[in-house]
Amino acid sequence: MEWFTASGYWLSRLVVQRGLAALYLVAFLSAALQFRALIGERGMLPVPRFLAYVPARRAPTLFRLHYSDRFFALCAWSGALLAAGILAGAADEVPLGVAMAWWAVLWALYLSIVNVGQTWYGFGWESLLLEAGFLAVFLGNARTGPPVLVLFLMRWLLFRVEFGAGLIKMRGDACWRDLTCLYYHHETQPMPGPLSWFFHRLPRPLHRVETAANHFAQLVVPFGLFAPQPVASVAAGLVIVTQLWLVASGNFAWLNWLTVVLAFSAVDGDAMASLLGLPAHPSAPSAPLWYVVLVLAATALVAALSWWPVRNLLSSGQRMNMSFNAFHLVNTYGAFGSVNRSRYEVVVEGTEDTVIGPATVWKEYGFKGKPGDVRRTPRQFAPWHLRLDWLMWFAGISPAYARDWFGPFVERLLLGDRDTLRLLRHNPFPDAPPAHVRARLYLYRFTTWRELRATGAWWHRTLVREYLPPAALRRP
């Protein structure tokens, strides 16, 4: 069935599959190491409580059969082990049906986690990983050539990611249209990286060029993904370069890396192999009929489900990062439809004093990724996802974003909960929990070149108001 396979894309498939496996590995490890404090039985938003009031049709998950922290950890670590196996190439050494089942188990395990993750998993890249992971089930292995239809579906996914992000910008904040959004974005983005200060200090005319280039990359280049070669490879290359620019300028978990991986579905594999000096790949056996039928069925399913994201893209009321079904298949994507002009950070402090007074000494908790200590250089964490740090950014925008979890977070600090403290970089109370915890809202801005040289501080902060008054545990 020559029409079914694209033999020249064997290296492209290899890169896509290994890249997806690596990101699955990161996602499962992130879940395994952070879930107890966030959604565990004694977490801030416990899974058992969530399952008690959300019907199964809205959140299909293995954890409806049974939930315990031990079982969740088993699922997360099993997912990490399976992803590591594919990353090592094991899925190419087994029969095609086994490889497909392997990918399907990965998808089902991560779907089960996302569907109970609540606000901690309410990010577009969770759905993006699930949709890409579902398509990977049908991408085959070394026992057959890469199916043309699945490669096309991956390009369709990449098109929705890029074009959706471009449209939401043009329809959203006016600063995207007048090319001024990057005057603010590098400073106010959720989690700046070690180079974000330098990106922010680029000349403003260069920021305008940067914004215009982003519009070209997201509104024009995606159409080239469906063109014949070498145009499709050039379009994919431009997407990759743009995403690596975003990787250098900030921390967006695995969003940018997953977009890079998807872009390789449009790269001519033979041309890439020749460029790298790799030997020619032998022809793969013909695809079995049952596999062809499954790929055709998956293609028909994606085509049918595409009605909702296409309608959303064409709508003046476009929504971003939305799933139209509980299985996170064929979603709509987008980012930064609006850009904050100022950066507000919630600073959490504790004290050992049982009675609060003018002489009370408050000690600040340190977070791993979000700005706190003004002299601490921003760190690079992506593709790792610091879920608490990301939600703290939203909390600084509005207390409404933190209504469900901020109180339980403070309570766990007062209890000295070990799982919660592991999510932090610095606990100022290593011997015993504090008697009181408070939170204050600060306005942060990047320092100037002169301020950085004089003080060594990357940030300047100004107290705005009290965010949470001193809180203590109720005593009997």
Describe this structure in words.
This protein has 476 residues and is α+β, with helices and mostly antiparallel strands. It is built from 19 helices and six strands. It has helices at residues 10-39, 47-53, 69-87, 96-114, 124-136, 148-171, 174-177, 185-188, 196-200, 204-219, 231-249, 255-263, 269-276, 289-305, 307-314, 387-397, 406-415, 418-421, 449-455, and strands at residues 343-351, 363-364, 366-367, 424-426, 436-446, 459-471. The protein has a four-stranded antiparallel sheet with strand order 2-1-5-6. Helix 1 packs across helix 13. The N and C termini lie far apart (75 Å).
| Shape verdict | globular
Largest beta-sheet details: 4 strands, antiparallel
Q: What ranges have pLDDT less than 50 throughout 5 or more consecutive residues? A: none
Helix content: 40-55%
- The percent range for strand residues is 5-15%
Q: What structural class is derived from the secondary structure elements? A: alpha+beta
Order of helices and strands: HHHHHHHHHHHHHHHEEEHHHEEHE
Number of helices: 19
Distance between termini?
Answer: 75 Å
Radius of gyration over C-alpha positions, nearest whole angstrom: 24 Å
Q: Count all strands and give the number.
A: 6
Mean pLDDT: 95
For the largest sheet, list the strands in their spatial order.
Answer: 2-1-5-6
Core attributes:
single chain; 476 residues; alpha+beta; four-stranded antiparallel beta sheet; two-stranded antiparallel ribbon; 19 helices; 49% helix; globular
